Amino acid sequence: MRKSFLLIFIAVMTFSVPCFCAEVEEPEQIDKTWNDIGKQGKQLLKDFGNFFKNAGERMGKDLEDASESAGKKITDTSKQIGNQFKQAAKDLFTVKCKGTWVYKSKRTKTTIIVNEDGTMEITQRTGLDVNYWKGHYSGTAHFLTFDIYMKGKKSFFSDKSKESYETWYITYTVEGDSMTVSSNDIPADESGTDFAEEVVFTKSE
C-alpha cells in the first residue's frame, strides 16, 4: 500500500514540476521583456517629442508666413490709401473748368473763358455792345479767384478799356458739358440774370 502511494506521488511530482516551470519565466527572460518595454517607451516618447517639435516648427512657419502676408497686405493697403489721398488732394486743387463756357439769356450772351496759361476773360454781349473783364485766375476744383487787370466796353464804333484792380470770387461745379456757376461779383446782364443764383453754362467747342 505504501509502495503504491509512493509511486503515485512520484508520478504526480514528475508531471507537475515541468508544468510549473513552464508557467514561470526565467529571470533573464523577465529582464529582457522589461528592457524591451523600456526601449519601446523611450522610442515612443522620442516619437512624441519629434512630433510636437515638427508641429511647433510648422506652426511657427505658418504664423511667420501669415504675419509676413498680413504685413505685406497692410503695407499695400497703406500705399493704396496714400495714393488715393494724393490723387484726391490733387483733384481737389485742380481747376476743372478750363475751356469756354456760354450762358444765353433772352437778350445777353455771357461767356466765361478759362485758359490753360492762367488767363481768364468774362464777356457779356448784348446786340453789338460787349462788356468785358480780363485777368488771371487761381482756384480749386470748385472755386475760382478772378484777379482782373483790365475791363472795358466795346461796340461797333468804339472800344474803351481801362486798368482795373478787382477780384471776383466764383463757385462752380462741372458735370460733363455743363457748369453751374454762382457769384456775387459777376454783374447782372441786360435780361436781369442774377449770377448770385446758380446759373448753368454750357461748354462751347
Task: Tell me what you see in this structure.
By secondary structure, the chain is of the alpha+beta class. The protein folds into 2 domains: 1-92; 99-204, Lipocalin (Beta Barrel), CATH 2.40.128. Helices cover 43% and strands 35% of the residues. The protein is built from 2 helices and 8 strands; from the N terminus they run H-H-E-E-E-E-E-E-E-E. The chain has helices at 2-23, 27-92, and strands at 99-104, 109-114, 119-126, 129-139, 143-154, 159-175, 178-182, 199-204. Strands 1-2-3-4-5-6-7-8 form an 8-stranded antiparallel barrel. A hairpin with a 4-residue loop joins strand 5 (143-154) and strand 6. The longest helix is centred in the first third of the chain and has 66 residues, at 27-92. The N and C termini lie far apart (148 Å). The model is unreliable at 1-24 (pLDDT under 50).
